[in-house]
Fold this protein.
Amino acid sequence: MAIQPYLDVYPKLGAGVYVDPTALVIGDVELGEDVSIWPMAVVRGDVNQIRIGARSNVQDGSVLHVSRPYPGNDSGWALIIGEDVVIAHKVVVHGCTIGNRVLVGIGAIVLDIRMPGVSGLTVLDTLIAQGVDQPVIMLTGHGTVDLCRRAFKAGAAEFLEKPVADDLLLEALQKAVRTHVRSRERHRADRDARERYERLSEREREVLSLIVAGLTNKEIGRALALSPRTVETHRANLFAKLEAESLAQVIRRYADLVEGGASPGTP
């Protein structure tokens, strides 16, 4: 197990604790009974304490960290996690308190505005610049209108003042993850539609544009100097390439691409 001291402070493990060999638990950390720390997770109690309650589960790739004391906050921000909590895959949790029986959603990042050596806003800017595709919840003990505005402008999903009630933090995380999942699904659908559209030949795109405009096969044939049978063949081929089962699906998924004059490689 990757259990390491920091400044001669060793982690304390309760009965039945499991720490994967690829995970790291370091410093002032106490793990309650039957806590599990899974592959590539990091629990780093270097400048403050981390306490994880019984039966909680830190899943693959998550990072748990804390804030050191600083002027105006003599105790810093410890990380206190209750019992029966699930910290899902690749979640970053920093210096906060989480109650019992909470799911911290997949792909969420929780950042403190004030962290040792760097601000949470700087970390957020770095994450955005690196293309990190996860919702970010910002926490602060010193909230101002300017900080709130800057956090949202930088891309934060939510901005909360500490101490944060358990139910409020959970609600914010769930909302951020739901919104993020819907956004991902929408972007994926748009990308898939564009990729299918780019499969069409130039003639098939001409036919599609007239279908979207509401023309019948005969009218399309006259407009393009094609026989109705040829139009039907093009229509069947483009429906197959677009993986559409009905005219309504074609219009709903591809009208914007047609009207926007999209071409292969168009972002």
Observations:
- The chain has two domains: 3-188, 198-259.
- Residues 263-267 have pLDDT under 50 and may be disordered.
- Helices lie at 120-129, 145-154, 166-197, 202-212, 217-224, 228-242, 247-259.
